[in-house]
Design a protein that fits this description.
The protein is α+β, with helices and mostly antiparallel strands. The chain contains nine helices and ten strands. The protein has a four-stranded antiparallel β-sheet with strand order 3-1-2-9.
């Protein structure tokens, strides 16, 4: 849910995720298991696992739940063979949508993803049809009340690439994906606890939406995120803050 009205978008997404926390935990357990299977059970030696553990902690997952998932992956006691795939398509008004999945049945998953696109006026595209519009970045977000000077100083000291003020007055600290956790942890050590932090796919261009199209796009994204096999959904929708607030209300 990237867009120029970042703060409203972040609040909407967090509210939607909180509403289906059980499903979020299921997705995180799958990620933990796969990461541990591929790179081992020690987060210090497995950057991917370290990143997933950070996500799970942010989502308030219990430590023993995480440990069981990691042990299952590292011990290969889970014989489910997950594939990591991406699907690309367009929603109404030409909004680009990029979907990351983990699945043990790609035929089931593609059918479910295609159904969501078709039901809400979009269409599933071919590989590469929208991927070129996105780049992977680490984003650490702060609200409009953050101290810009203090944040800038801490971010540069932590090794961030950029500090950008958004149209709505919020701030984004941009990092390379590989440096994301180090920068985030350094910022917290400096006393700047973020309101949101993630490695995400950032679009190079945006599509500004009116209320009706925004409502449809949000329903499409929510429908995709509600699928068991879908891990992440990214779009280049730019939903103005007043429209997002109205839809949330």
């Amino acid at each position: 849910m990237a867009g120029h009205s970042k703060w409203s978008n972040i609040k909407h997404r967090k509210a939607a995720q909180d509403a289906r926390k059980g499903k979020i935990f299921t997705k995180l357990i799958r990620e933990l298991t796969v990461a541990a299977r591929e790179g081992g059970p020690d987060p210090n030696d497995n950057p991917r696992l370290r990143a997933v553990v950070d996500k799970a902690l942010t989502a308030n997952m219990k430590k023993d739940t995480m440990e069981r998932a990691i042990e299952r992956g590292a011990g290969n006691s889970d014989d489910t063979n997950y594939e990591e795939l991406t699907y690309e398509g367009y929603g109404p008004n030409g909004v680009a949508i990029f979907v990351e999945v983990m699945t043990d049945n790609r035929n089931r998953t593609v059918a479910e993803v295609r159904h969501a696109f078709n039901k809400l006026g979009g269409n599933l595209g071919t590989d590469g049809s929208v991927a070129f519009l996105f780049s992977k970045q680490g984003i650490v977000s702060y609200g409009p009340d953050a101290d810009e000077d203090a944040l800038m100083e801490a971010a540069l000291e932590a090794g961030a690439d950029d500090v950008a003020e958004q149209d709505d007055g919020s701030y984004e600290i941009v990092t390379q994906p590989e440096q994301f956790l180090d920068v985030k942890e350094a910022l917290v050590a400096f006393g700047h606890t973020p309101d949101n932090a993630e490695v995400t796919m950032v679009p190079s261009t945006y599509v500004t939406l009116d209320r009706d199209t925004a409502d449809t796009i949000l329903k499409l994204i929510d429908m995709l995120e509600d699928l068991d096999d879908v891990q992440n959904v990214y779009s280049n929708a730019d939903i103005p803050a007043e429209i997002m607030d109205e839809l949330n209300g």
